[in-house]
Design goal:
Layout lengths: L20 E2 L8 E4 L17 E8 L6 E6 L10 E14 L2 E5 L2 H8 L3 H12 L8 E6 L27 H17 L5 E6 L25 H19 L6 E3 L21 H18 L6 E8 L5 H7 L2 H4 L4 E5 L8 H11 L4 E6 L16 H15 L3 E8 L1 E3 L15 E4 L4 E4 L1 H10 L7 E10 L6 E7 L5 E7 L5 E7 L3 E7 L3 E7 L2
Parallel strand pairs: 5-20, 6-7, 6-13, 7-8, 8-9, 9-10, 10-11, 11-12, 12-13, 14-15
Antiparallel strand pairs: 1-2, 2-16, 3-4, 3-22, 5-17, 15-16, 17-18, 18-19, 19-22, 20-21
Helix pairs in contact: 1-3, 2-3, 4-5, 5-6, 9-10
């Protein structure tokens, strides 16, 4: 190996507060502990210095978004072992919408269970300049599995006029106050979108919010008309609370409602039913209410449905005109050639963005417990983001922002993991490796960034261990994220004709974000 480690003068920001690590018996890795008076922070990277570059590193062994600054070089020092990554900013692909997580009942209840000081530091960790600066938030419309009980916004049977529609305690006491606090801490615009899990039971064929069922009748019928107005009322009532929505998805995982005895809230659509609901009911209702600028997203389900589901819906001009994007879930990506499906979908519908709208560990098809300090789960997040965004996806939204020590609350006991775990009894919270992996993207790849060309020349390095992606930022800076899943450090040399070479070494089991400005 002839490549050497990062060379040149370096310094770390004195303003960043370090992680306070903690390990748990029986678990590998470590979390970072925060309380009402102390929490680690992320050093700011602006302005990017001329003739230098900034690198942030997180690793399985030690670092958590550690910032360093080094000088660029006129030549590469990778010879017989390593990787040369060449950036081509003239080769431009999709624009970035952003990154974020979901304001579920579970997340916001856990946040509100902390003291005022701990709440503020937790939300700063996600939304402020001291943290990873999320720019997207998903809001369940009424209850989902990560609630303490089932509820809708109108549980009065036969109320087709929605005369009894009202937001729930969970909205007014938990979700909306937390959302407003988060937005108040952010220097960036936070895009909020709503997603329904089920209509009220009285509107459905099975009479329940969970189980196997769909709306009564057919699109264009009275129940579909009422359900469309339910969306309108949701947007209006949130607006009355000074929370404006950027978008909506038509239905969370519409195929779930086809499964008999499905445990939590679900509602079935086929692709043709969703198409007809959009063009006959939902699209016209939103337009008539003045919400035609809301970003309406179809599917909101697994990637194996690409491109057939969009072909059915977006192939119809009367439904296509109401839709802005395609929402995708990550859970079954490992079982399908997801990159090929995403690229094919983009080639068919280049004017409709694709957004990954839900992901988590601990759901079906994975280990359901909270895995304290799991680096591999963080790696899984980063691998997904790099892979899907290299195939035209515009952003990536995690599931629950926060869960408790058991991975809940969840009314059907379908516990999961989360980037931040709260121990309310001790008034502390733990930042998992997943949090830092997400931060390597969300803090630096700001909305409006554009993915650019990046070619990789491996010299003796197993390609499956090195994952990378490049973006041009709105201020003219370039950023590259590199993930090393190997158990050894890997020499890398980034080449940008405008600046020369960035000679570096990414540690074993580590992720790095590089920033420089021509």
């Amino acid at each position: 190996m002839t490549a050497r480690a990062l060379s040149g003068l370096s310094h770390c920001s004195p303003s960043a507060k370090p992680c306070v690590p903690k390990t748990f018996p029986g678990f590998q890795g470590f979390v970072c502990v925060c309380n009402a008076t102390y929490c680690d922070t992320v050093a700011n990277y602006n302005p990017v210095p001329r003739d230098q570059f900034v690198v942030y590193t997180s690793s399985n062994a030690s670092d958590r978004l550690r910032q360093q600054v080094f000088s660029t070089s006129k030549q590469s020092n990778v010879t017989d072992f390593g990787a040369v990554l060449s950036v081509n900013i003239s080769l431009r692909f999709q624009s970035v919408l952003g990154f974020g997580g979901a304001f579920t009942d579970a997340a916001t209840i856990n946040i509100r269970n902390l003291s005022t000081g701990a709440q503020e530091l937790l939300l700063k960790s996600y939304y402020s300049q001291d943290g990873i600066e999320y720019t997207i938030g998903r809001i369940p419309m009424a209850s989902c599995d990560f609630s303490t009980h089932e509820y809708s916004y109108d549980d009065h049977s036969g109320d087709l006029g929605l005369l009894n529609f009202s937001l729930a305690k969970e909205d007014l006491v938990f979700k909306i106050p937390v959302i407003k606090s988060a937005m108040g801490l952010s220097s960036r615009t936070v895009k909020l979108f709503g997603s329904p899990w089920s209509a009220p039971g009285w509107m459905k064929t099975d009479g329940h919010m969970n189980g196997k069922g769909q709306l009564i009748g057919q699109p264009g019928g009275k129940y579909f008309k009422t359900w469309a107005q339910y969306f309108v009322r949701f947007v209006q009532e949130y607006a009355k609370q000074n929370v404006s929505l950027w978008g909506l998805t038509v239905q969370n995982e519409p195929m779930d409602g086809l499964i008999g005895n499905f445990s939590f809230q679900a509602m079935y659509y086929s692709a043709s039913m969703e198409r007809d609901f959009v063009k006959l009911d939902l699209g016209p209702a939103l337009e008539a209410a003045g919400f035609q600028d809301l970003k309406l997203m179809m599917m909101d389900d697994q990637s194996f449905k690409l491109p057939s589901w969009p072909q059915t819906i977006l192939g119809d001009k009367d439904s296509e005109k109401y839709l802005s994007g395609i929402a995708v879930h990550w859970y079954l990506d490992r079982y399908t050639p997801v990159g090929l499906k995403l690229s094919e979908t983009h080639s068919l519908f280049p004017n409709h963005f694709m957004l990954y709208s839900e992901a988590c560990y601990g759901a079906a098809f994975s280990d359901g417990r909270v895995d304290f300090g799991s680096w591999s789960r963080g790696e899984g997040y980063s691998q997904s983001i790099i892979n899907v965004m290299n195939h035209w996806v515009t952003g990536w939204v995690d599931w629950n922002l926060v869960l408790n020590l058991q991975g809940g609350p969840n009314w059907v006991h379908g516990h999961a993991d989360s980037p931040i775990i709260v121990d309310a009894a001790q008034d502390i919270f733990y930042k998992q490796p997943m949090y830092y992996h997400l931060g390597h993207f969300s803090k630096f790849i700001v909305p409006g960034s554009v993915r650019v060309g990046l070619s990789v020349n491996n010299k003796g390095v197993d390609i499956k261990n090195l994952h990378s992606i490049a973006f041009s930022l709105p201020d003219g800076s370039t950023t590259v994220v590199i993930l090393n899943t190997a158990d050894i450090p890997l020499p890398v040399s980034l080449h940008d004709p405008a600046v020369g070479y960035i000679n570096a070494q990414i540690p074993a089991r580590a992720i790095q974000t590089y920033l420089w400005k021509p």
